[in-house]
Amino acid sequence: MIAVKRSKQSVLRTNNSVDLFLTVIRVVSLIVIALGLLLFFIEQIRGTALNGDAPLTGGAIRGLFVTGVSQGAMYGLIALGYSMVYGVLGFINFAHGEVFMAGAMSAWITSNILFDNGMWEGGFSFIIALLIVLLVAIVVSTLATILIERIAYRPRRESPRLIPLITSIVVSFFMQNAVLGLFGPASKTLPAPPSWMSDSYTFLEIEGTKILVMVIAAISMAGLWVFVERTKTGKAMRAVAEDKEIAALMGIDVNRTIVTTFAVGGAMAGVAGVLWGLLFRGVSSQTGFLPGIKAFTAAVIGGVGNLGGSMAGGLILGVAESVGPLLILKPMTIPAVSQLKDAVAFAVLVLVLLFKPTGLFGERLASEDRA
Amino acid sequence: MSTRSATDIDPKHSVSVGLIAGISIIFMGLVGLAVGLNERILIDPILSLGYLFLLAVPLGAGYIAANETVLEGMQAPEKGTRDIVAGALAGLAGGAMVGLFLILLDTVDLSEKMPAWGDRLLDMLSFNQGVGGGVVVAALVGTVLGALGGAIHVLKDEPRRVIKIVIISVLSFAILEAIVDDVLGEIGLKPVAKFLYSKSGGLSVLPAILVGIVALGFAIGFKGKGDELKTRYDTMEEAERKQVNKYALIAVVVAAVVLPMLLGKIVNELLANVGLFVLLALGLNIVVGRAGILDIGYVAFFAVGAYGMAVLTTPEAPWRINDTLVHDIFGWLPVLPWLVALPIVVVMTGFVGLLIGTPVIRMRGDYLAIVTLGFGEIIRLLFLSDWLSPTLGGSQGIRNIPGVNVGVTEINGTKPQYVFYLVAVFVAIAIYISHQMETSRIGRAWMAIREDEPVAEAMGINTVTTKLIAFVTGAVLASFSGAIFAAKVGSTFPNSFLLLVSIIILVVVIVGGMGNIPGVILGAVVLIGILGGPKQPGLLAEFSQFKLLIYGALLVFMMLKKPEGLLPNAARTRELHIDEALQDAWLKGDKPSSEDEVATA
Amino acid sequence: MSLLDINNVTITFGGLTAIDDLNFHVDEGEIVSVIGPNGAGKTTFFNLITGLSTPDSGEILLDGESLIGLDPNEITARGVGRTFQNVRLFPQMTILENVMVAQHCRTNQKVLGPIFRTKAYKEEEALIRKNAEEVLGFFGTRLTGYRLNQPAFVLSYANRRRLEIARAMATQPRLLMLDEPVAGMNPMETAELTELIGKLRSEWGFTIVIIEHDMRLVRDVSDRVVVLDHGETIAQGSYEHVSTHPDVIEAYLGRSAGDK
């Protein structure tokens, strides 16, 4: 017979110390943020920064916000793809960043061809050229994502969760290196947009390209919204996200719906790729990595599976990484804060998952992925 | 079953296989692989590495096209001319596609966008026949190789095995030219090496044939001996098996000590690098393979280990020189020798593991993956930043790190043989720790968590603590590797610790066989040894440019076709075989008990 | 004296009240069966006790101490072992390992023990192994001998159920909770397990709560039967009392006729 140890209090509550530690991290990070902001306000009021520099001007701060919003809009568009795929299949499609990169690459090629033909200037012809570039990028990214789904994900859809996740990391790695091999390591530059685009507008002092980026993002988002909420295919997507088996029983072609989900996400990533080209004009095989991770962060901030949330999350992250270093780190006399921009974005990811792992606006996941 | 005619093939299947083969060849051409590897000659003057890659594709396609899926209960179809025709058709389709590509290559100029686009690729794909001739030759070569591939499929198992051994032997001798040459030189057989290899690189034709003949002799002479040994080992008594294992262990130790003495600097350097990655892979194997925690920021611990060692042992480390807060607080600390610093580094890394692990450990698998990635990048960016550069050197890193003083000699990068010994000792320690942990109470709990976390928790396992132990153990093993790395290289830079390193370690673990110690070691030897690490060259230094691409392709293939790795858990396999034996016994009427049928689920 | 006390427990899932103001108790050494139509809240009831769900209100006491807010592993450590309705073994682990791992909360060797092969570690491993063989031996030779080192997924359905009970026994509980232990078993196997459940109390000293649809088993082993419907207790008492209770008959027959 087993000698049952029946001491009641022998149970060590180690999990309490873990909880305590997490609380400490939460509190410390809040204090750091609060302290940074406090110092920032003191500097602004005093008129000199702690390290002797002049404080930020109102214009500079507004500039940071505008940059943040335009980049955030781009993150938001990429985040939609993560969000939708996570909603339907329940795994992070790491390769989505590379789908975005493919879109940016195609924008580099088409815009240069159009530039050589003299279409990348003037008013009307530039807009036509931009539409062509957008169209090509959408086609390229959509095809890329459909191919990835077909070749890499579908055969392993029913495997344990770690497998599709690792597969997606692997696909992303492969795509980066394939593009590097195909197009070489040299830096690739998009032609400069016509001067009326890049000039600042006096009434808001916002660069034309940034306005353009925001407008394109807004239109795409609206289009997606209509597609998901108003069309039959969109309804099928939401049904599959809710419960694959029941959806199949209701006569929905689950495979086709999953492909559609990937395709729509890919199209959005393609648009985002063009926006990247407009904002930064430089593209390389590494382009997909950081924006991809940041976009995923945006999706988590907004609540995975929640489309409106993803877009909002993108904007929040864009502003946070643009403004954060200067508002919080710089007042604490940390030098060269712009080097830490990416670290700030990652820190935002960690903090969001620590404070609110289900996102600010709530997750919408398939039933088996909850809890 | 009736004999089937040659026309009885599935043309759609063959053609699609052929087209995929064609795309693969074109892809290899466009990424520069074909031309880039054309300079590496394998058999002078017949075969280069570049052509080997290209020609293997239609051969494989022919084999695949000839293959038919045999469903359970279906009779395997008779093999014959049909297979050859199917293979040839696939080869033709692939060749035709390449032909079309040749025409495109000739008419359109995309070299501005794609560096590989150009005449050299055209020359290579057309076998120097120009476009017109090239199209014909491509189709012809494709058809012949496809047919050959199909013919291999027709062969019986035994000749197929022999041919495989011969081809692999010849190719290994050709590919491993550097190492064979090195070893032969070291043991005073330089003339043999001179005979084997031609001046422009690669085996000469006559030696290649000789190698083939010798391999043929071995293949026929030792037919079935391997299986025989394996069966004998499997059916041994526990005590006897232990004895054999002991002898095997002694043999391995002796080999590890003696072999490096026979090898030159290059190979020892290679072995040392492999060892460093074996250490890392063993650590990650505990985290991912055993506990099922997908940590893709694992390089962070390697970095902390290396930087920790650099900070403690370097006399002119930045923080000792510059006037910083760290200097004010720790300025009294003497410069430590490696062996004294090691325990501190291990504890430090373990602590960082705890610090990173605690917030992430309760997250869902994929969130955990991306957050660990984030932490890995944060740590690298901090090392790189101007903010911490007075302490850690920023992008300049920490230089002039002393080697390991072991009394008789100082082990550093200039003595790769001793570095290898040092690494080997720590690999042995890591294997021991991994093995002991895996078979212990905690190891069982890891397995239970990996299989079904909620149930493991309901069975009384504190999943948080148990997973944290895995995370920290993994971190500690990485710190060993980092500490040796710092002493070996003599400097640490933030850019030695890119995300790429994490991914490559993950690749090693997956390709080798997740959760299985010998598999992980095999993975490191094969991948790091042959292809090379993120910055370290492998045996095939020619690959360096395409290393990552090959890694990627290999990985995609592994994940799709063999996610369990090259060497999956052996014990599990043996158990499964015992079960098959039981089924057989049951079928013969030797039924153990009434309801012991094996469930098929 | 009662071992488990549940007072006024309520839990709702998104508006659906799965357990409604439930009161329940189990005395030390008792065998209590919980029956009720499908969807009556029986498994939710188990999940509440074992910490997989947390009630919205009410209290759950084991030997006078609250279990609410504890993690499932802590509840197991305090002496509640369970099986699952849809058999959840660790399929890739061997039969022996399945039972060994369940003794996790009764043992405490961590990292240093196995690495330095201390005496305490070896003794503990030997004890774990001995205990494991003992609980497996409870089911005769079906789970022992050559079976020990086979992965659990090769077992037949009935043997999986047995192994799951053995695994719960190995956690060394005071309260053993079995969720449909004979589902999918044939009458012979059921009869055998009925006998074993009796032994679990008489020889091993467990207090037992069973969810079961098989009325013969319920009749043969239970000291007391509790009937749940719509998350509420509608009747309790001896099998004879409950089986003739009008509310119970209505609960079963009032639902779809095809239901058990």
Characterization of the model:
With 371 residues, chain A is mainly α. Helices cover 70% and strands 1% of the residues of chain A. Chain A has helices spanning 14-46, 58-89, 96-116, 124-153, 162-183, 195-198, 208-230, 232-242, 244-249, 254-280, 289-302, 307-329, 341-355, and strands spanning 188-189, 282-283. Chain A is globular and about 65 Å long. Chain B has 601 residues and is an all-alpha fold. Chain B folds into three domains: 1-154, no CATH class; 156-224, no CATH class; 246-496, no CATH class. In chain B, the strands form two sheets. A three-stranded mixed sheet of chain B has the order 2-1-3. In chain B, strands 4-5 form a two-stranded antiparallel ribbon. In chain B, a hairpin with a 4-residue loop joins strand 4 and strand 5 (410-411). In chain B, helix 13 runs parallel beside helix 20 and helix 21 (441-451) packs across helix 23 (463-489). Residues 588-601 of chain B have low confidence and may be disordered. By secondary structure, chain C is an alpha/beta fold. Chain C has one domain: Rossmann fold, CATH 3.40.50. Chain C contains ten helices and ten strands. Chain C has a six-stranded mixed sheet with strand order 6-7-8-3-9-10, with helices on both faces. In chain C, strand 1 and strand 2 form a beta hairpin. In chain C, helix 5 packs across helix 6 (157-170). Chain C starts with a strand and ends in a 7-residue tail after the last helix. Chains A and B meet through helix 1, helix 5, helix 11 and helix 13 of A and helix 18, helix 23, helix 24 and helix 26 of B.
